[in-house]
Amino acid sequence: MRPRKASVAKDPRNPTRPWVVRWSESTEDGRRHRKSKAFPKQREAEKYANRKTRELRGEVAPIDEPMPERVGGLGDTPLGVFVNTYLERRRSESLRPATLKLYRDNLNRLVNHFGEGRGIGTITPDGIAKFIAEQRIVLKCREGQTLSKSSRNSIVRDLKIAFRLAASWGYVSVSPMAGVKLLKVNTDDRRGWHYLSPSEFWALLKNTDSDSDKAAYAIMYGAGLRYGEAYSLQPSDVDLSGGYVHVRPREATPDTPPFRIKDHECRSIPLPKYAVDLIAKWLESRPDGSPYLFVSPERYERIKPRWRRMQARGEQWQNKWLANNTVRNLRLRAERAEITLTAPLTIHSLRKSYGRSVLPVSVHEAI
User: Fold this and answer.
1) What is the structure's pLDDT at 171?
2) I need a surface site. Which of 27, 101, 106, 286 has the fewest CB within 10 A?
């Protein structure tokens, strides 16, 4: 008997999905049925073929999931229905909350442009190009300004994934994103950040009246921690005697949300002396009532009921929700320190400036 195996072949008649995986399966009546699945790239087809071969030989469980039920005929499904189905499917993949929010925001732009009742099969590459060109910033502080090339590329990438799945699920015959290319992003096109020099950072610390915020700024500027990572720290995550901060995930409890780190990247980072000194000073006066290093007891009492509501609704937590008003306070203190900004200043500027944090000894002593 010939061994069961899935094969890969190229079909030049399909320019968007030329790589075809073919195999045959037995039905309950003993008959053999030939099946196939097309892919845009050879490596995707080969990966699927290897997995399908193992499935046919009984080595692994089946990989094909039931196709979502279509509303109407091919291409007639309303865009809003497909977007809801797509987001629900991606939510089941245990993606990070911030990633799901980005998918949702970008797809909602598409729905707002075409209308949720628009048939998904009537969206053309020309319509997609017009949609991307018309996108603008929606934040209130910069509402209506032209969207950067990087942000438009983010929309294109998310739509490519969504329409590729739409084609594999049978909602459309061909993805309208097939011919849409990413924009070339030059150095001048990138959104800049204001990089804080050591002297500017020292001026910022001198104009910060909160020991907690001083220590938080130092750990982001001196160890390159992300905003959500810094405010998710607990006192046990900092080793002052060894001069290290440990970034590691933490499971949720009934009163504390989970802490998820990007790319599951646990790491231990050495702290500069000024950061150790500032954290030690803060720990001497840190009040009880909060399990977090930089989250006040008052703020923690607001977090607990929100987390309980989210648990009841099955919603996912984002690390950045532990603190608030951080950007506003940073900008007020920078203005008070008379720092001349050359680009936007956000809390992420502290991490972006990581590596410039070698402060002079006199500054360490002053702290």
Assistant:
1) 86
2) 27
Domain positions in the chain are 7-56, 79-189, 198-366
| Separation between Cα atoms, residue 344 and residue 328, nearest integer Å | 12
Residue 352 CB partners (closer than 8 Å, separation 6+): 193, 195
| Under 8 Å between Cβ of 290 and 212 | no
Average pLDDT, the chain: 84
Q: How far apart are alpha carbons 107 and 86 in whole angstroms?
A: 10
Q: What is the CATH number of domain 79-189?
A: 1.10.150.130
Contact at 8 Å (CB) between 269 and 261? no
Instruction: Look up residue 322 and give its DSSP letter.
Output: G
Helix (H, G, I), strand (E, B) or coil at 10: strand
Question: What's the predicted TM-score (pTM) here?
Answer: 0.64
Q: 3.90.78.10, 3.30.70.120, 3.60.110.10, 1.10.443.10: which CATH number matches 198-366?
A: 1.10.443.10
- Reduced to 3 states (helix: H, G, I; strand: E, B; else coil), residue 21 is strand
State the Cα–Cα distance between residues 260 and 314, nearest whole angstrom.
Answer: 16
